[in-house]
Each structure stands twice: as structure tokens, then as C-alpha cells.
Specification:
Radius of gyration: 28 Å
Number of strands: 0
Strand content: under 5%
Number of helices: 27
Keywords: Repeat, TPR repeat
Pfam family, one: TPR_16
InterPro entries: CellSynth/LPSAsmb/PSIAsmb, TPR-like_helical_dom_sf, TPR_rpt
Helix content: over 70%
Structural class: mainly alpha
Protein name: Tetratricopeptide repeat protein
Shape: globular
């Protein structure tokens, strides 16, 4: 049930006609004839839409008109395996007439892997390989079984066996080797392998795209730019290449330029929803709340958007409306999100922050308590609550809450030192002000966290005077009149 490369197939006129005919048949409770391949593609389509019941229904219907079709039976088996119904899948396999068919054996291997019985796969696969004289395509298929199962040990074992039987410079061998290296994050080896493939075929755009991905994953941004420029030289309109160029800029912390390439990739991209997500993040980084709202609404329009994903989108929408001081829209989006997932903790933080801006601290604290109760990542939710107090200018409460967090997570809260210092500045707490300014200057060497929307200069009164004071403290540290170690009361806190 591999839906990875079928998105174009789902857009063809022939498929769309088949889909329309099938859904009309279902609506009218009729029976129509379809080719088995068309029905499998329909099942793949529903699976890609996360409509598992509809996908299963297609296969069940297909078997009523093609009861002996092995491909359909194997698809049903794999569907049962993917759903965790291993005993049912095994029973179905036992009924199939050709027990030596490679697809039957592959399905049994998948059952073994799901059960954690990888050692049993040798008894299934080695006789098969020997009977086929270690045929190349079959060895590649077997390695892919272990790659799909994320089993590095056995994938490596079969890759080494492949190397024993075939020239390592053969393109198909290099391709499966590169898949192995990328899957298990051996990026230097992947880079070397893709370069070998490009030596064989320098005009293969897919190799340049994969080389770009490997360089990005290995943190080699400059080399990634070079690789993607070669890909674009082959086809400057390729949406995947344009998208990857955007990621190169994003890794270079240039969200503005990244957004331009994502926008160019959007018209022909295979997964616009994922692109909307990253474009929204770019807009958020750039402080463009209005455009973030546009992309979030586009994500909500997607029919495959799950209830949880809708809750996440509404929470983000509420946050952007809050930053735009559109408090009614903030409340509407928060409540709408809770309709889709009333256990999503960040929505309760959002509701609490809304109440802070409405000067209803008691209601806010009740919602924060709900958020903490529902939290799956308690630290992240507690940080969100601190940020809510800070953004709403509840500086004393923010300081108190932060100091509780600092006791719980003493080595993990340093990115907030300047925000906490500003809290102290606003409430004239000079002792703590000095402590957090020195800590912030010592550990961060910057006045704001580029990954957070806690931008003191944009939001707070008297921010300019505060920044001047922070700079003065930095100068005194550098000239030696302030000793940072005097302001760290946590002995395990590492100093640069």
C-alpha cells in the first residue's frame, strides 16, 4: 500500500472518472464492474486521504467481482497488517494457493517485523533469494522491506549481501544504498553515493534533488545551494526543486527569500497543505500575521484535514488574531478549535491569554490549570503560560512563574533571560534585573530569541531604555567590571 508517488495518478481524467463512477455507485447502492487495477488505485486514493474504512470497503467490493485476484488479496493482507490485525492477515495468507509467490512471502516478512520476530525473516527470504539466484530487483525489494520497517540491522545485512553479489558502482545498487544512508541518517555516505550517481548521469534532476536533501540534512547549506542550482538549471520550473531552494534559504535563516521560492513552487506542488504549513511558519517568523491567517485558512479548507489538525490551525489563528489585537476573532478561533479537540492543551493556554488581555486574571488562571492538566509535554505548556503572562504585560506573574520553571528546569530556561530581565525592569526589581541581564548577556549574546515572538522592542513600553541598559551591562562584562560567575547561583550551570 505505497501511496508515496501516486498523487499524479489521482489527478488524471481517467482516475477522476473512475472515482466519480465508484462514488455514484456507492450512493445509489448499485453494483458496477471495475478493473482490478482501477479498484486498487481507488483504495490507494482513499488510504492517502486517511479514509481507511473507505479504502477497505473498495478492496472488499473488488474481491466480490475479482475473488481470485492475488494482487487484491495481497493488498487486503497488507491493509490488515497496517491496521495491526496480524492474526487475520496470517489467516488470509494461509488460504492463498501459491505459498511460494514472492508477494506472499513479503507479506509474511512484514508480519514477522510487526511482531518483532526479525530473526524469522531469514528462513523466508534466503530460500527465495537462492531460488532466484540472488536476482538484483528482488534483492532491492527485500532491502526496501526493511527500510520501510525502519530496521537498520537487517537492511544493512541485506545491503551488504547485495554488495557481495553486484558491482557497487551499478546505478540500481547505488540508488538503494543511498536510500539506506538517507533513511538511517548516514548523510556523508549518502552525499558520496549521490555524487557517484551524478558522475554516471549528471543530467538526472532527481539525483541533484536528493543530493540537496542530503546536504541540508548534514547542515552543509552552501553545498545544498550549489546542488539545487544545478537541479534548477535542468528544469527551472520543477516544483520540488523550487521548494528545496526555499528550504535552503530557510536553513540560512532567510525566511523572506524562502517564502518567494515556496510561492513559486505552490501552483504545481504535489502536497500544497504541507507547503502552506511551512509558508505559514515563514510568515510567522517575519511577523506577517495577516498572511499567516491566509495560509492557515487554506489548510482548514483541505478536506483531508483531521480534527486534531484543525484544532492546531485554530490555535495558531487565535494567536495571530491576538497579536493583531483582534480579540473577538481570537476568542472565536479558540472556541472553534476546542470543538474539534477539547483536550488540546495549547488552546486552553490561548484562552487563558485572551482572558489576561480582558483583565480577567482569575479566568485566565483557571484555563492555565486546564492546560497543565491536559498537557502531553508539560514543560512546553508551562513555557507557553509564561509567554502568555509576558505578552499580556503581567510582569510580576511572569517573573513568579518563570522562577518556578527555573527551579524545575534549571538548565533549560536560559533563552528567556532577557524577557525575564524586562519583567524585572518593568516592576523595578533591581536585584533580579541585574542577575538576569548578566545571565542573558553571558549565555545568549543577543537581545531576543529569533525563534520566538517575544520581541521586546516591538511590544513593550520603555523598551529602548531597557535595551540601552542591557548594552551597558554587556560592555561592563567585556571590560571586566562585572564578573558573570557572581550572578549564577546554580553551580551546575555551564559558563562559556
Amino acid at each position: 500500500m505505497n501511496t508515496d508517488d501516486l498523487s499524479h495518478s489521482f489527478q488524471t481524467p481517467e482516475f477522476l472518472e473512475t472515482l466519480a463512477n465508484y462514488e455514484e455507485m456507492v450512493r445509489q447502492h448499485r453494483t458496477c464492474y471495475f478493473e482490478s487495477n482501477d479498484l486498487i488505485l481507488l483504495a490507494e486514493y482513499y488510504a492517502a486521504q486517511q479514509k481507511i474504512k473507505e479504502s477497505d470497503d473498495v478492496i472488499k467490493y473488488a474481491l466480490t467481482i475479482h475473488p481470485d485476484n492475488l494482487e487484491l488479496q495481497i493488498y487486503q493482507c497488507n491493509s490488515l497488517i497496517a491496521s495491526g490485525k496480524l492474526d487475520e492477515a496470517e489467516q488470509l495468507l494461509n488460504k492463498l494457493p501459491d505459498q511460494q509467490d514472492e508477494e506472499v512471502i513479503y507479506a509474511r516478512v512484514n508480519i514477522c517485523l510487526e511482531r518483532g520476530q526479525e530473526e524469522k525473516t531469514d528462513s523466508l527470504l534466503i530460500p527465495l533469494m537462492e531460488s532466484e539466484d540472488y536476482e538484483l530487483d528482488m534483492m532491492v525489494d527485500i532491502i526496501n522491506l526493511f527500510l520501510d520497517a525502519n530496521n537498520e540491522t537487517y537492511a544493512r545485512k541485506w545491503l551488504d549481501l547485495l554488495f557481495e553479489h553486484y558491482d557497487k558502482s551499478e546505478p540500481l545498487v547505488l540508488e538503494i544504498a543511498s536510500d539506506f544512508y538517507m533513511t538511517f541518517r548516514h548523510f556523508p555516505e549518502a552525499i558520496n553515493t549521490y555524487n557517484q550517481l551524478l558522475d554516471i548521469d549528471p543530467y538526472q534532476q532527481g539525483y541533484w534533488l536528493n543530493l540537496t536533501r542530503a546536504y541540508l540534512a548534514n547542515g552543509q547549506t552552501e553545498q545544498a545551494f550549489n546542488a539545487i542550482d544545478f537541479a534548477l538549471a535542468i528544469d527551472e520550473s520543477n516544483s520540488k526543486a523550487l521548494e528545496l531552494k526555499g528550504y535552503c534559504y530557510l536553513q540560512s535563516l532567510n525566511a523572506e527569500e524562502a517564502l518567494k521560492y515556496f510561492e513559486r513552487a505552490l501552483p504545481n506542488c504535489e502536497d500544497p497543505v504541507s507547503l502552506y504549513q511551512i509558508m505559514e511558519k515563514c510568515c510567522d517568523t517575519l511577523g506577517n500575521d495577516e498572511q499567516s491567517i491566509v495560509y492557515l485558512n487554506k489548510m482548514l479548507e483541505d478536506p483531508t484535514c483531521s480534527d486534531f489538525e484543525k484544532a492546531v490551525c485554530y490555535q495558531k489563528l487565535a494567536n495571530h488574531y491576538l497579536l493583531l489585537s483582534e480579540y473577538d476573532n481570537c476568542l472565536k478561533c479558540t472556541l472553534k478549535g476546542l470543538e474539534y479537540d477539547n483536550g488540546f492543551a495549547p488552546l486552553y493556554v490561548m484562552l487563558g491569554e485572551y482572558y489576561l488581555f480582558e483583565d480577567n486574571q482569575h479566568a485566565a488562571e483557571q484555563e492555565f490549570a486546564h492546560a497543565e492538566a491536559y498537557a502531553t509535554d508539560k514543560k512546553e505548556i508551562e513555557e507557553q503560560i509564561f509567554r502568555a503572562y509576558f505578552r499580556a504585560c503581567y510582569f510580576q506573574e511572569a517573573l513568579n512563574y518563570f522562577q518556578q520553571l527555573e527551579e524545575k528546569y534549571p538548565l533549560k530556561m536560559d533563552r528567556y533571560y532577557f524577557c525575564v530581565a524586562y519583567c524585572c525592569y518593568a516592576i523595578h526589581d533591581e536585584t533580579n534585573l541585574m542577575k538576569y541581564l548578566v545571565r542573558g548577556n553571558t549565555l545568549l549574546q543577543q537581545f531576543q530569541d529569533g525563534h520566538e515572538r517575544l520581541q521586546i522592542p516591538d511590544m513593550m513600553p520603555e523598551a529602548e531604555d531597557f535595551m540601552k541598559l542591557a548594552n551597558e551591562i554587556l560592555c561592563r562584562i567585556e571590560e571586566g567590571s562585572i564578573h558573570p560567575e557572581d550572578y549564577f547561583d546554580l553551580p551546575e550551570q555551564p559558563l562559556p
